[in-house]
Design a protein that fits this description.
Layout (H helix, E strand, L loop, with lengths): L1 E8 L3 E6 L5 H16 L5 H18 L8 E8 L2 E8 L19 H8 L2 E6 L5 E8 L12
Antiparallel strand pairs: 1-2, 2-3, 3-4, 4-6, 5-6
Helix pairs in contact: 1-2, 2-3
Length: about 150
């Protein structure tokens, strides 16, 4: 399943490694919830958990996952919010696609696109890619750091 010893918390970054087992998606969500609570970012939880579910699911379905080439999640805190990265061993870049309304799958990246403030795909050192999504903290109402 997931490798807890592979977790690397460094204050503003938590790195976890996962096998291709479908149950790892639930564990990735659970770990993200813990991280968000620790960082005081629980207000991002609903969107962040859906995003990590989709990205880890896609990596498990489409990437080469071996004992040497696992799926890796990185949760990075910034002053403005959160960045979620999912790294895998496949160089195939995901793309949102038109979905048949009757289809039961194929909407994951459309969901990520709708929920994230920004998302994309980047190359990484070694084989594979990084799919990332960023969520910004909401701006407070006027008089609380908002525009006046």
């Amino acid at each position: 399943m997931h490798e807890k010893p592979g977790s690397t918390p460094t204050g503003d970054c938590v790195v976890l490694r996962w096998s291709g087992d479908a149950r790892c998606v639930a564990f990735a969500r659970l770990e993200l919830r813990k991280v968000l609570a620790d960082w005081g970012l629980s207000e991002l939880e609903d969107s962040a958990v859906l995003i990590v579910s989709e990205l880890v699911s896609n990596a498990g379905l489409h990437a080469r996952v071996t004992p040497e080439q696992v799926v890796e999640t990185r949760y990075l805190r910034s002053a403005g919010g959160l960045r979620i990265e999912v790294r895998d061993g496949s160089s195939e870049r995901p793309r949102p696609r038109a979905v048949d309304p009757e289809a039961s799958d194929g909407r994951g990246l459309l969901l990520v696109e709708a929920l994230a403030d920004a998302w994309g795909v980047a190359e990484r050192a070694g084989p594979g890619k990084v799919v990332w999504a960023e969520l910004a903290l909401p701006v407070g109402p006027l008089g609380e750091g908002g525009c006046s």
